[in-house]
Amino acid sequence: MPEPLTSVLSRRAEIVAEMRAIVPGEGVVDAVNEMRVFESDALTAYRQLPLVVVLPETVEQVSAVLRFCNDNGVRVVPRGSGTSLSGGSLPLADAVLLVMSRFNRVLEIDYANRAVVAQPGVTNLGITNAIENEGFYYAPDPSSQIACSIGGNVAENSGGVHCLKYGLTANNVLGIEMVLVNGDIVRLGGKHLDSEGYDLLGLMIGSEGLLGVVTEVTVRILKKPETARAVLIGFPTSEQGGQCVADVIAAGIIPGGMEMMDRPAIEAAEDFVRVGYPLDVEALLIIELDGPPAEVNHLIAEVERIAGQNGSTTCRVSMSDAERLSFWAGRKAAFPAVGRISPDYLCMDGTIPRKELPRVLAGMRELSVKHGLRVANVFHAGDGNLHPLILYDANIPGELSAAEEFGADILRLCVRVGGVLTGEHGVGVEKRDLMPEMFSEADLDQQMRIKCAFDPNHLLNPGKVFPQLRRCAELGRMHVHRGQLPFPDIPRF
Amino acid sequence: MPEPLTSVLSRRAEIVAEMRAIVPGEGVVDAVNEMRVFESDALTAYRQLPLVVVLPETVEQVSAVLRFCNDNGVRVVPRGSGTSLSGGSLPLADAVLLVMSRFNRVLEIDYANRAVVAQPGVTNLGITNAIENEGFYYAPDPSSQIACSIGGNVAENSGGVHCLKYGLTANNVLGIEMVLVNGDIVRLGGKHLDSEGYDLLGLMIGSEGLLGVVTEVTVRILKKPETARAVLIGFPTSEQGGQCVADVIAAGIIPGGMEMMDRPAIEAAEDFVRVGYPLDVEALLIIELDGPPAEVNHLIAEVERIAGQNGSTTCRVSMSDAERLSFWAGRKAAFPAVGRISPDYLCMDGTIPRKELPRVLAGMRELSVKHGLRVANVFHAGDGNLHPLILYDANIPGELSAAEEFGADILRLCVRVGGVLTGEHGVGVEKRDLMPEMFSEADLDQQMRIKCAFDPNHLLNPGKVFPQLRRCAELGRMHVHRGQLPFPDIPRF
């Protein structure tokens, strides 16, 4: 986090009064006990009270808040439902927390263009709920879909079980309305296919609240597939499971979902939900095929053949929709299930080229021995997005920092095999200081020049994503020297 | 085009010598008769000789050329195969033309990650050729795919008949290596799913050579579908055909391709290739369904039902692959076929929300009467990308400007119904001055700030895409006033 601007802290009363003038009624929260609910997001190890919480209701209010803050050097942290796993919506002591939860209406349902227009505070599942009676749905499905907002999905480029076949948020958003830090309101994309000019829509998706505030989202909707069947496949080793994933993809099959769990995760899940997972395997794959029945049956036979070639020891195909959902129940409950076998766990998020799965799984076992901590793996195998859960006990001195070191080593391994630091949870504060592992100085400078093009005074969500601030004027000279990190340690509770 | 920099013109000999020092052998072309071949792209109404043509062979050479030009205030126009339809690769009198055609090798074929790594000068079809013996292909298929380069596809975000189902270039490129104007070499994306940091990869795709020079492209490859069958459907009115397109999409069907032709285009094509198109209809749809046979047959029945509801008068389903290809032969020959019935034609490129098709087709007929010129329509109906061909005779005084006015009116109509100025041909010089029809001042300022973040001296492909240059320093103040266009008319031959 950047150091608080003391000049802003001393002007708090004036800023709060200005916010109340812009957002009347109950839209401004400044009492400490009422702000407590906003002090964390889902990266619960970190807490910070904001300067003031503002909950606007109209785009004009968002514009006025940003214009005031930009003109007065006040920092702003945008926030949706606060379900970020990387601390992306963590407040700052000297920043207005701009909470978009009152933007909660579905504005338009347009089946002929297969599009829904929604305000950013609508939940991910809220969009599907609005259209499922007509047989449509919105494809990206983060595990937090009951709670997370579509605006937050845009900020983090969220994924989910079905993103292997249907794409991430970036592939399913057609347009947005956003407010720039100077208060300008711009529209990017729309219901049409593509747009001339630079792809600012793509740039905004996954920009973690550093480039602007989204006030409207147009998403692509899909027809629900006619059939979906799942196959549960067990392997004696994780490497065989990983190879099966690579072979399914290489065969040209794109399952609706392809998830993998390792032995610790299988045992924890089965102990929790009792859905009949095999307990004598080291790796379990759940592969879902969807489409017309004839296609699904054909692909299931192909998947069974490939699994057999990779030494699978069990293979069960769901014979009803209830059975299919039971296969998924264990996977979906895996995080809380792991929570039952360990006092604490750290959920990591890295992505690798799919064919490197066996190598990375083997490397992770070596790291587990090195750091003396167990790791359970539950991940989106099909798209190479790993979620290793590092098990530790915060009450044993040194275990939290060992877990964090272990996590950093895993992410470095991901980068070494040609992967990246995150798949769908964002960088936020959690992986901020690992960015140089992935990006060269030229890369980071170029990203920072983009940041300066949107927010030259670094007022939007500062201290997130980038390991250091660089002055825009310096970047303009195209040659910068890397200095010391200007951020003190983030307070951890 | 910006006015030539006289100081650069006077230093030509020195610049040519510097280029020869960087790119030895035959990689520098400065003789006028040898440069003639580069003076146009596929927007053939415009011609301009460059300062000098440079054909580098290595990324280090590209970096050295750009660094020299950046340090010395020399403009650079990047070029692939020169097939741009919007003048995107049109040379400038005072600019180095950086031709990437010697970057022509496929570097890596990686089936397990479903990826191909290619140099930017490889043709679009060259990628499919390298992998088709294993049953794979690269999906986006511009009509120019025999000639156009994958680097040019990245610059223009090129589309094609199969992009309705499989996406544009932006959806099929996983990573690039590019050289910034200051000579820095950066890598964006890779074989993994997504990347942290800003989506600079998405930003580069469709940036029309204004942000950097691509030196390597990693693309996603797909397994060829098991079956493909096409349906040829005729309608008494264009509106019924347009409604059928909207209804097919609304029913949740995503055909591999869905193309439409109107009566003038049908007649010209049938007269040219004689494939048996019906001549008693006003609109002809070609809809291709692909996938496993059972799925394809099921979807064909659905499409036939929807066509019948919209008053189709003929409906033929291909019974063999030869017949399917004959259905496409007329469509693929439609541009040259129209060239046989009119001395000249202007090919437009606009995109609209799909359900607006009937309204836009009706509007175009009114405009045809207003401007006294015929128009033939051949377009990617499924994704709302129109290619109206305006027929005129350049030898009749006033007809070219009438055709250009007609074209501008069509594009304004596209914007009015919620569409955009281009689908896949880019803005280039052709639609540059229409950008304010689509974008507000705040929009254009923000795009120009991005341009400044990459190329603060406006040396890369100046005069293309944006209707005016704005000084980066002015934009930094976040408030700019719109001045006069600094560009003289582009020379037309």
TrEMBL record, chains A, B:
Residues 46-224 form the FAD-binding PCMH-type domain. The keyword Hydrolase does not apply. Pfam families: FAD-oxidase_C, FAD_binding_4. The keyword Oxidoreductase applies. InterPro entries: FAD-bd_oxidored_4_C, FAD-bd_PCMH, FAD-bd_PCMH-like_sf, FAD-bd_PCMH_sub2, FAD-linked_Oxase-like_C, FAD-linked_OxidoTrans_Type4, Oxid_FAD_bind_N, Vanillyl_alc_oxidase_C-sub2. One of its GO terms (molecular function) is oxidoreductase activity. SUPFAM superfamilies: FAD-binding/transporter-associated domain-like, FAD-linked oxidases, C-terminal domain. Keywords: FAD, Flavoprotein, Oxidoreductase, Plasmid. Its cofactor is FAD. It comes from the Bacteria. This is FAD-binding protein. It comes from Xanthobacter dioxanivorans.
